[in-house]
Amino acid sequence: xxxxxxxxxxxxxxxxxxxxxxxxxxxxxxxxxxxxxxxxxxxxxxxxxxxxxxxxxxxxxxxxxxxxxxxxxxxxxxxxxxxxxxxxxxxxxxxxxxxxxxxxxxxxxxxxxxxxxxxxxxxxxxxxxxxxxxxxxxxxxxxxxxxxxxxxxxxxxxxxxxxxxxxxxxxxxxxxxxxxxxxxxxxxxxxxxxxxxxxxxxxxxxxxxxxxxxxxxxxxxxxxxxxxxxxxxxxxxxxxxxxxxxxxxxxxxxxxxxxxxxxxxxxxxxxxxxxxxxxxxx
Length: 282
Hints:
The protein has 282 residues and is an alpha/beta fold. The chain is built from ten helices and ten strands. A hairpin with a 7-residue loop joins strand 4 and strand 5. The N and C termini lie far apart (71 Å).
């Protein structure tokens, strides 16, 4: 038998250089495994743009060049695990108390704005769209808009399509599944597609949360940034939270993942439920 081939030895300098790219461009803190993956990817990325020196390529990437390669690095650094109606207690709180309160508070303007930051392949914003459509029907004059953003253009393209394997529907309550998820035509057998009424509520944009300016003038009533902050280093995490809070309305709510928390008073927030925070400033 032929002995297995040993993996190529990773150049520590290249590894360190690509870790710096991740931290400088995205504010992300790679794990040891991810750092190894980046180093192993370096030669292939360099060959794609005709670069002979991975270290020189790393310096170019750190300066913001080759956005298509940066997108691939971003995909390597983030785990796009998601599903419909994730974090049940938050969804239940949304249905039982938060949305009824908003229904009364926004009765005059009939306008709601939400942001799903780190939306991955779209299950979260489409979940929100289903829940909101049942509370704020357009026929009653409500304008509900959802911004869905992610760092990776690859997952945004999938989210924009709004098509998933039919087995994903098991997480969707039956009445909403029947109302808003369409079984695929013959060419999409075994797939389901979001109803056009949901798609019309959602705008997809690539946003790097580590950027100084998101190019957004809107203030949001509800902002979901769940299981995203865990990827950031400490300094970047604080900057991101401050920027997100500035995009909340005066009493807007920020939803985090179950393993995330923040010192609410440090960011002008107060606890409003498990990993839910309310903005207290203007």
